[in-house]
Amino acid sequence: MCFIRAYLRASTDEQDASRARAQVEAFAAERGMQIAAWYVENESGAKLARPELFRLLADAHPGDVLLIEQVDRLSRLGAADWERLKAELATRKVRVVALDLPTSWTMATGKVDDFTQRMFDAINGMLLDMLAAIARKDYEDRRRRQMQGQAKAKAEGKYVGRPENKRRNTRIATMLAAGTSYSAIQEATGCSRATIAKIAKRAPKAV
Known about the structure:
The chain has two domains: about 5-135, 3-Layer(aba) Sandwich (Rossmann fold); about 165-200. Helix content is about 55%, strand content about 10%. The protein is built from eight helices and four strands; from the N terminus they run βαβαβααβαααα.
């Protein structure tokens, strides 16, 4: 029996990585699928080193499904890193099912004959490559526009950087003071361990 492993990702701590959870759950329920495990993280899709993604792959068994909202949640990688990730998926025989890739939906149930499965594998492989390339181009375009905007703002003396999320950080500091674990804080706020550690360093030390 294959397991459905759902992966949710957001790029920054200010974004809610669990935003698409209800949509992914509804997709699974409509098809009689039960999600066995959730993997949620705030990491850039443009980098390969993502702890929760690789925890999912380490947990997976051959034939398991990696369920995502959109292909860009899995990858905004450059060509070389995308090939490495594809190789890891192939080695572990994990099937990718994305809500924005309808041809992948039949792979979620596995209720097709061998010939049909091979055909869909080939089609999905090609479409995944295309969508991953589009996601990467979108990432590079947005980065270029962002850098151009920052350069212009700096030249005009208007650039002040990203504002701190004070409300969230106060909540994290309060949870730390109450002895809440890093893992529990991550789950409650969707932020990274690095952010929690940074806020922990700010906290006044008991004397």
